[in-house]
Amino acid sequence: MGKTVAAALHYNSSTMDFIDLKTQYRRIKPSVDARIARVLEHGQYVMGPEVTELESVLAGYCGTKHCVAVSSGTDALLIALMALDIKPGDEVITAPFTFFATAEMIALIGARPVFVDVDPRTYNLDPAKLEAAITPRTRAIMPVSLYGQCADFDAINAIACRNELPVIEDAAQSFGATYQGRRSNSLSLIGATSFFPSKPLGCYGDGGALFTNDDRLATLMREIRVHGQDRRYHHPRLGLTGRLDSIQAAVLLAKMEIFEDEVAARARVADVYARLIEQAFGASGAVRAPYVAPGNTCVFAQYTVEVEHRDVVETRMKALGVPTAVHYPMSLHQQPVFEHLGQPEGSFPVSEAAARRVISLPMHPYLTEEQQGEVVAALKQAVTG
Ligand SMILES: Cc1ncc(COP(=O)(O)O)c(C=O)c1O
């Protein structure tokens, strides 16, 4: 790319955030500040009244009987696996195209992550390939609702039901999304989400939550969250320090006041991107915009497109001052730590191709149409060279 063109198109990255949390804070500042001040005054910093209030708000929002607020999305997955008594030697089926934590928690507990390739349009676990991966050692299925769009739970649950297997939704990216009119986190036996700051619903540190309609599992997950204790200093099982801080719960309660409005704004931003990409690239196929399956609404935790020569496009976008990210550059079966699973290149071709082609554009509810125009102009420049 010629230097002058790059200079002419250079956008000021200080005005173009990949995710803009400062604008959101300015909007909710009175509520956040007042709620945090209340925590500082009552002094119950861990598992205070805000946590109980948050659990009730979130369970009501997702339409589940129980919500168990925890310390992170990763801990949510671990606690779910522990509550289902997944043990070393067991197999848990998941998708290879996801954030590392999904398979990491399966392996951390000593079980074997068994990967099933993803659908090329939604990047979610392909139900058509699921049944073939089930063995006598399979103990659970953990589909991921990637980029903010739910996996095909009717198909997955039907197969799980036939094989008497529990299903955990890794809903770290999909809080607020719907599938056939039902909310993410309520679509299977357990839903596990993340409140990492960059998530559609994020706190100001680490946080997460578990959702279920099952009373016994809810009790187990609450116990595992606090060192496996069923009453003070009495431990029938092992657990961890998996609690949510009251200050994080206070932040999340403030953010829930505007969450639906932000979900709608995300959908509007995604529609504008789709239109601009169509105008810029038409039927050339040079850039593939995200696909949302019928019956799904997406919260666009990421706005991820596919391009040829992704690494070149990424470098050029950086030179043009437009922040991008790659979610994710490697299919998990190719991570060094999973080499022992013995799955060479070509084992999961859809996931491998996606890892070579995907690039995420700036996405948040406060992105203006003008900024989006700049992003797509830069993308056009980066793609066509
Ligand atoms: C799909 C997926 N699973 C699990 C996690 C882990 O969540 P946390 O970062 O809150 O531990 C993430 C977070 O990025 C994620 O995207």
Notes on the protein architecture:
The chain is an alpha/beta fold. It contains twelve helices and 13 strands. A four-stranded mixed beta sheet has the order 1-9-8-5. A three-stranded parallel beta sheet has the order 3-2-4, covered by helices on one side. A three-stranded antiparallel beta sheet has the order 7-6-11, with no helix packed on it. Helix 5 links the parallel strand 2 and strand 3 (112-115).
H/E element string?
HHHEHEHEEHEEEEEHHHEEEHHEH
Instruction: Please summarize the sheet with the most strands.
Output: 4 strands, mixed
Distinct bound molecules: pyridoxal-5'-phosphate
Radius of gyration: 21 Å
Query: In terms of per-residue confidence, which ranges show pLDDT below 50 for 5 or more consecutive residues?
Result: 1-8
Strand order across the largest sheet: 1-9-8-5
Name the average pLDDT.
95
- The helix fraction, in percent, is 25-40%
Strand content bin: 5-15%
Number of strands: 13
Number of helices: 12
The SS-based structural class is alpha/beta
Distance between the termini: 6 Å
Shape: globular
Q: Which properties best describe this structure?
A:
385 residues; alpha/beta; binds pyridoxal-5'-phosphate; four-stranded mixed sheet; disordered N terminus
In a nutshell, what does this entry contain?
Helix 3 packs parallel to helix 8 (246-256), helix 4 runs parallel beside helix 5 and helix 9 (259-281) runs parallel beside helix 12 (369-384). It contains twelve helices and 13 strands.
